[in-house]
Amino acid sequence: MTFAKLSNLAIAFFSVVMIGLTICPASLAQGALPEAPLPTASVEPVSSFVEMPQSSESSHKFWNRQNKILFLSAAALNTADFAITRSNLQNGGRELNPVVRVFGRSTPALALNFAGETAGTVTISYLFHKTGHHKLEHLVSYLNIGSSAGAVTYGLVHR
Questions:
Q1: 18 in any annotated domain
Q2: What pTM was computed for the model?
Q3: For residue 74, is it within any domain?
């Protein structure tokens, strides 16, 4: 694979992500900032650390039970997708996904693709968690699980 193909692939991926974030109105949501207190003459700083109030929705930890189950499910289905795709390619099949087709020529590259897909799911979910978009945090995993389950089903049916 040449560097030009890889850079075109990266540009296409980031373009799709940015368009998706632009179109999705929830990704543009901003939390309301608390009203700043009016200064008075006898105000002394108590601490240099200012803690923003947390809403009840953002109080959950990132590695909670739900996220662990979602990430393990995504990893399991990505592993199954890798195994079935590799088997189909070795038996004369062809890869239908144009993004994965670039990596389908070698087993290590194919494994790297599916491992990167899992790591990308966790990373994007974490970024949504840190920015307070908790519904999108879970939606990323649901989309990955759904697409991998569809690919596994299709691969098993069309062996």
A1: no
A2: 0.62
A3: yes
